[in-house]
Design brief:
Bound molecules: adenosine-5'-triphosphate
Largest sheet: 6 strands, mixed
Strand content: 25-35%
InterPro entries: AAA+_ATPase, ABC_transporter-like_ATP-bd, ABC_transporter-like_CS, P-loop_NTPase, Siderophore_ABC-ATPase
Helix content: 25-40%
Low-confidence stretches: none
Number of domains: 1
Shape: globular
CATH superfamily: P-loop containing nucleotide triphosphate hydrolases
Keywords: ATP-binding, Cell membrane, Ion transport, Iron, Iron transport, Membrane, Nucleotide-binding, Transport
Pfam families: ABC_tran
Structural class: alpha/beta
GO molecular function, one term: ATP hydrolysis activity
Subcellular location: Cell membrane
CATH topology: Rossmann fold
């Protein structure tokens, strides 16, 4: 379990998060949802220790994230940010191989190579393995970044808007792979704007608004009309389609 208590974050002298109190259940998929600018990426970056807190604590299990040595944290938690920039003259294989760095320290074993090849295949990138990143489409590059993150092999995986640039088939593929990771016991947190996807795949939802948590709980507690209408200040309809919640604005 990840526990966030009274978290406040200020960026460039602007208060961004205040009094964030939330828990992320271990071994489940948690969707982080909410309007643009609500603070989702900032919360994810704070959990990944990429953004410092002004106040409050974040614990993995019962250990404060500030008490982890960098390598220990990298073996425990992997994060893909929304704005990841990568060197254009890297191949897909090189990029995904970087995910193994906390294990290999640059000396990849056969097991590291096998893990890289496996995740490249799961992401349907095998035909692009030796292509430079700047020759890929936006969606192919996005899948390579997700593959790098999963190659790290951590118990906790944080993905900020992983479905950016993905067509509906590849979005489904990524969500299925994320679910497979959860079935293996991993804790996956994804920032998602597609509430239908969040409602279909996640176990748990944290809804943010104006820098704090507006609602949280199992999917049914958050992906419903009153909560979403309030969250987005817009009428939202949730249509049941064979057990799937289709979320639309009306
Ligand atoms: N370096 C910064 N300095 C000042 N304000 C910032 C900085 N970075 C982000 N912000 C502001 O913090 C707020 C929260 O940003 P954040 O990226 O966490 O939101 P988000 O919920 O992920 O949004 P989106 O859905 O648009 O990606 C926004 O109002 C943003 O403009």
């Amino acid at each position: 379990m990840i526990t966030v208590r009274n978290l406040s974050v200020t960026l460039d002298r602007t208060p961004i998060l205040h009094d964030v109190d939330t828990t992320v259940p271990a071994g489940q998929m948690t969707a982080l949802v909410g309007p643009n600018g609500a603070g989702k990426s900032t919360l994810l970056a704070a959990i990944g220790r990429l953004t410092a807190a002004d106040a409050g604590t974040i614990e993995i299990g019962d250990k404060n994230i500030s008490d982890f040595a960098p390598r220990d944290l990298a073996l425990r938690l992997a994060i893909m940010r929304q704005d990841t920039h990568v060197a254009p003259r890297l191949t897909v294989r090189d990029l995904v191989g970087f995910g193994r760095y906390p294990h290999s320290h640059g000396r990849m074993t056969q097991q590291d190579h096998n893990i890289v090849d496996d995740i490249i295949a799961r992401m349907e990138l095998t035909e692009f393995t030796d292509r430079f990143l700047d020759t890929l489409s936006g969606g192919q590059r996005q899948r390579a970044l997700i593959a790098m993150t999963l190659a790290q092999g951590t118990d906790i995986v944080l993905l900020d808007e992983p479905l950016n640039n993905l067509d509906l088939v590849h979005a489904r593929r990524v969500m299925k792979i994320a679910r497979e990771e959860v079935e293996k016991g991993k804790t996956v947190i994804l920032v998602l704007h597609d509430l239908t996807v969040a409602g279909s795949y996640a176990d748990h939802v944290i809804a943010m608004k104006n820098g704090t948590v507006a609602a949280q709980g199992p999917v049914d507690d958050v992906i419903n009309e009153p909560v979403l209408t309030d969250l987005y200040d817009t009428p939202v309809q949730v249509i049941d389609a064979n057990g799937h919640k289709i979320v639309v604005t009306v």
